[in-house]
Design a protein that fits this description.
- This protein is mainly α and 221 residues long.
- Helices cover 57% and strands 3% of the residues.
- The protein is built from eight helices and two strands.
- Strands 1-2 form a two-stranded parallel sheet.
- Helix 3 links the parallel strand 1 and strand 2.
Length: 221
């Protein structure tokens, strides 16, 4: 194998789905919160766990189940055909938990919608408006479905919808933002938590490795 082939081999071994599976299996996670587009990655973890358990006649690894919120996919505020992502080049495409109210307001105010004067839920033909309605439903903590909320806004305009979305997001994000600031300023506590977390993670991972080695005949428990 030439160097280029070797590099590709290393890259494939360290690819994201493999690393995700390792994290899940190391700590024997039973339920994993994932986005709608991450379900196939979780399936890899389940396949590996099931294959190991079956091959070595054990139940070392639980088969992880996915946890998906009602809002399976939040889309970009600037391009509602793409998911909202922190890696997108346009910072106005996403809302961060550290955003000030004025930033949230400006981002939602400039969110892409369409030229139709009314509000309706149509993800295929009106993805921008549908995305705002989804965000509103998710941040409001309501039991109503997105189409039901859309019906309530049928006589309102885009500006009114965006105002209500902004307020709902701020009610959800505001306390998180303040908590983040408080915790971020406590450097000593953060270091203590980090060190303790590393210790606990290593202990759990080491125990898992020990069980695996014993099961495949490479060492005692």
């Amino acid at each position: 194998m030439d160097q280029r082939g070797a590099d590709k081999g290393v890259e494939s071994e360290l690819a994201y789905p493999v690393l995700q599976a390792a994290d899940i299996l190391f700590y024997k996670a039973t339920h994993v919160p994932v986005g709608d587009d991450q379900q196939q990655h979780l399936e890899l973890s389940r396949d590996i766990a099931e294959l190991f358990n079956r091959t070595h006649k054990s139940n070392i690894f639980p088969l992880p189940q996915h946890i998906i919120t009602p809002a399976k996919r939040i889309l970009s505020l600037r391009d509602p055909t793409q998911k909202m992502s922190k890696s997108a080049p346009n910072p106005k495409s996403r809302i961060l938990i550290t955003d000030e109210f004025s930033q949230i307001q400006a981002k939602i105010r400039s969110a892409v919608t369409d030229s139709a004067p009314s509000i309706s839920y149509d993800p295929e033909y009106r993805p921008g408006v549908a995305n705002l309605l989804t965000i509103l439903a998710s941040c409001s903590g309501t039991s109503k479905s997105v189409p039901e909320i859309a019906q309530e806004y049928s006589s309102k305009n885009h500006a009114e919808l965006k105002t209500d979305v902004t307020e709902a997001v701020e009610r959800l994000v505001g306390p998180i933002r303040e908590n983040y600031r408080r915790i971020r300023n406590d450097e000593a506590w953060l270091r203590e938590v980090s060190v303790d977390g590393i210790r606990k993670a290593r202990e759990i991972a080491a125990q898992t490795i020990k069980q695996v080695k014993h099961q495949i005949g490479l060492g005692p428990l």
